[in-house]
Write a structure and sequence with these properties.
Layout: E1 2-6, E2 9-13, E3 28-30, E4 36-38, E5 46-51, H1 58-70, E6 77-83, H2 87-97, E7 102-105, H3 110-114, E8 118-119, E9 124-125, E10 128-132, E11 138-143, H4 153-165
Parallel strand pairs: 5-6, 6-7
Antiparallel strand pairs: 1-2, 3-4, 5-10, 8-9, 10-11
GO molecular function, one term: thioredoxin peroxidase activity
Domain Thioredoxin: 18-165
Organism: Carnobacterium divergens DSM 20623
Length: 167
């Protein structure tokens, strides 16, 4: 069991988180167009996976916009944002913020459980960032220890750039 905090209160995160150097767990989730997207669809590309607890909160909105602005422009990097918001909540947020990106909804928590990110007490996913290289191996991971904090964008982007540059 992993523990993070929400404004100082301890929150339990269930399951086992994948470790850097391991094969990233496969997942299949629907995007806003009801297409099933799986990690293996991006074999041969670098994937940056941004996980947020709730798109309708300020820190999650900031995180999503930041990665969309920076990672969205990186050649050879596929950016995905994952939360357990409903498709409608995600679509409304994207429309309201003029954001177009690969937004995946994990309403049945399959991703949350395979990546060890589910917080039962809050019924949300822990804020985190993963970078998966072309071979499907996890090369970067950050599970943010305090929910109200933003992830380290620079480190994640750097890891994605290094993964793209690696031949």
């Amino acid at each position: 069991m992993m523990e993070i905090t929400k404004r100082g209160t301890v929150i339990i995160v269930e399951g086992t988180q994948p470790k850097v150097g391991e094969k990233a767990p496969e997942f299949k989730l629907k995007n806003l167009n009801d297409q099933v997207i799986s990690l293996s669809d991006y074999q041969g590309e670098v994937a940056l996976i941004s996980v947020i607890p709730n798109i309708d909160t300020s820190v999650c909105a900031i995180q999503t916009k930041q990665f969309n602005q920076i990672a969205g422009k990186l050649e050879g990097v596929q950016l995905m944002t994952i939360s357990n918001n409903t498709k409608e909540e995600q679509a409304d947020w994207c429309a309201g913020n003029g954001v177009e990106m690969e937004m995946l909804h994990d309403t049945d928590l399959t991703f949350a459980k395979s990546y060890g990110l589910y917080m039962p007490e809050l019924d949300l996913l822990a804020r985190s960032v993963f970078v998966v290289n072309r071979e499907g191996v996890l090369v970067y991971e950050e599970i943010v220890s305090e929910m109200s904090h933003e992830p380290n964008y620079e480190k994640a982007i750097e890891a994605a750039k290094e993964a793209v540059a690696a031949k």
